[in-house]
Amino acid sequence: MVDQLNEVKHFPCSSCGADLVYEPGDGFLTCPYCGHKEAIPESAARTEEQPYEQHLRIRPEQMGKLASNALEVQCQSCGAKSIFTPPEVAGRCEFCGVQIVAQPTSADPILTPGGVLPFRITQPQASSELRQWLSTRWFAPSGLKHFAQPDAIHGVYIPFWTYDTSTTTYYTGQRGEYYYETETYYERDAQGNQVQRTRQVRHTRWYDASGTVLGAFDDILIAATFSLPENRLSDLEPWDLDQLKPYNPAFLSGFKAQRYQIDLASGFDRAKEVMAPVIESDVRADIGGDEQRIDSLQTEYRETTFKHLLLPIYAGAYRFNGKLFQIVVNGRTGEIQGDRPYSVWKIALLVASLILLIILIAILFGDQ
Predict the structure, then answer these.
(1) What is the band of 109 on the pLDDT scale with cuts at 50, 70, 90?
(2) Dihedral through CA 224, CA 303, CA 280, CA 282, nearest 10?
């Protein structure tokens, strides 16, 4: 994989010599100057699972770059590191909106991606969807119209891990089974007389329980970034991961890619958090009964594999009253998720207008 990546430097146009960029609309490498198009060669390779334990011990010299001419720049404001290839430039940070002034350097080696989900939505399409989304944001400040500009959002590949694993969970706990007893009580009837009545009262008997539960998990998707809120990225799902392509630097041409901020081991720790509720539910089902108490759980993970993926989003950031607001667009479906500020002045103006309207109506109808 490393040798293959280092062979690729740039994609010159065979017609005019300029650098080709990936065009999401048709999936071709396209010359932005003369319009010449070239197909990205189909690869016989597949995006395959990689052994987790083996890659935990991988050394920097065994890693690679997204491309041999890949450059890396770090945002001086939020710290995010973005990787790109010329003629792409550093520009503005997609995650905090600050203009990047740091000089790019040659990108450090990373655990290279095994797969990429190429952009399918073009920048004009994403901007159009965003303008429509903005038009429905009531009481948004006028400054939010910044996002309506064509260059307000930019395409960037976000790093993700996926994990497959088999689990064996040993547990101890208690199984609760309901039983009912008849209870006598007294109350007054409609005439005020005290009468005796009975009712069924539920109780629970508890029995010790222990056992072993097996599980299998496939493609647990974990975002390897701190730059975007986890819930925002989750809301962009689903991703059509069945359309993954083996990683090829050609898909990066004209776009940036973020360096992963969550490493392989930390990503698996997060995957364990995702698996925990499922494992607990399976344990409760194994305990059975009407109620369950879990005293201890011990889970072993076996045959764990992973994939390092790049998934496409358009992202932009907006600051209002010192607070950061982010908007992200799924680069495959056009799904938009974002934060929005509220304009206190617009809300106050509406309230004042409503009060004035009520006063005018009261005056008009009061004179009749």
Answers:
(1) confident
(2) 130
Other Cβ atoms within 10 Å of 238 Cβ, number: 10
Domain definitions of the chain by residue range: 2-160+224-263+311-349, 177-206
Q: In what order do the strands lie in the sheet with 37-39?
A: 21-23, 28-30, 37-39
**Cβ-contact 177, 205 below 8 angstroms:** yes
Q: Tokens at residue 266, please? A: 């930390």
How far apart, in whole angstroms, are the C-alpha atoms of residue 312 and residue 164? Answer: 22
Whole-number Å distance between alpha carbons of 125 and 150: 10
pTM of the model: 0.83
User: Do residues 228 and 158 lie in contact, with contact meaning Cβ atoms separated by under 8 Å?
Assistant: yes
- Which pair of structure tokens corresponds to residue 93? 């940070």
Number of residues that this document lists for the chain: 368
Q: How open is the CA angle 332-334-337, to the nearest 5 degrees?
A: 115
Spatial distance between the Cα atoms of 176 and 289, rounded to a whole number of angstroms: 6
Nearest-angstrom CA–CA distance, 49 and 307 = 5
**Mean pLDDT rounded to a whole number for the chain:** 86
pLDDT tens profile 42-69: 876 778 899 999 898 887 777 888 887 8
d(CA 154, CA 88): 11
Q: How far is CA 294 from the centre of its chain?
A: 31
